[in-house]
Amino acid sequence: MASLKLTALNKVYPSGEKALYNVNLETTDREFLVVYGGEASGKSTLLRLIAGLEDPTEGEIYIDGKDMTDVIPKDRNLAMVFRGDTLYPALSVFDNLAFGLKQRNAPQALIKERVKAVSEILGLNDVLYRKPKQLTAATRQRVAIGRALAREPKLYLFDEPLNGLDDVLRRDMLDVIINLQARMEGSFIYATKNLSEAMTAATRILVLKNGLVQQIDTPANLYDYPVNA
Q1: Averaged over 193-213, what is the pLDDT?
Q2: Quick one: pLDDT band at residue 179, thresholds 50, 70, 90?
Q3: CA distances from 190 to 80, 105, 129 (A)
């Protein structure tokens, strides 16, 4: 089970800027939910609130039926993949993949088992002992995704993970992520401003504009029955 529920979620910054207003959402187990919107729509803020990296002004966040609103990030049983290069440059690929598990004092045997499994899934066996600067942009992003997978959380958050990749690499990596979702136990929440990515990957799409939810629906229904322009 990997469900997410957001109830009347609001985020207002000290400047008075309203980043999110009255977001209500329930996901199902193993869902691929895409959060779609343009710049300053509130996509990243929403993911950061779910992850516990920011605090909501109002509202509640439930993961698997438990109130996580005030729980610190490491205790929320989720992992987040950010846009851009977020790997630790001084660590090898192996140590980057193992980082989250080591932080949680996982047994060495479990760390090796998880890293091996993730490496095989993502095709990283040949680069395990290289440093990030020796990798291509696409391979670095595979490692970033692998670092999240190695922990085997209930919820995976992706904040525009393919931003900056060219069109060919973007399509290839999106295929990788879609295939991963099909074989993992958790649910994926994926933020993007790329409509093609959203329509290709999602089981449902949440459309955001200026912090307001416009519609939550399947790709087909959004295309055929949009509630507004």
Answers
A1: 96
A2: confident
A3: 10, 28, 29
Look at residue 110 and tell me whether its pLDDT is greater than 80: yes
Closest CA to 148 of 107, 189, 205, 209: 189
Give burial (CB, 10 Å; 0-12/13-18/19+) of 143: buried
Global pTM value: 0.91
Q: Which of 47, 22, 53 is nearest to 35 (CA)?
A: 47
Binning pLDDT at 50, 70 and 90, where does residue 118 land? very high
Per residue, the 3-state secondary structure of the chain, as one string, reads CCCEEEEEEEEECCCCCEEEEEEEEECCCCCEEEEECCCCCCHHHHHHHHHCCCCCCEEEEEECCEECCCCCHHHCCEEEECCCCCCCCCCCHHHHHHHHHHHCCCCHHHHHHHHHHHHHHHCCHHHCCCCHHHCCHHHHHHHHHHHHHHCCCCEEEEECCCCCCCHHHHHHHHHHHHHHHHHCCCEEEEEECCHHHHHHHCCEEEEEECCEEEEEECHHHHHHCCCCC
Mean pLDDT of 194-201: 94
Instruction: Name the packing angle between helices 108-122 and 167-183 (round to 10°).
Output: 130
Angle at 197 between CA 134 and CA 117, to 5 degrees: 50
* Partner residues linked to 188 by β-bridges: 32, 156
d(CA 213, CA 159): 17
For residue 1, what pLDDT band results from cuts at 50, 70 and 90?
low
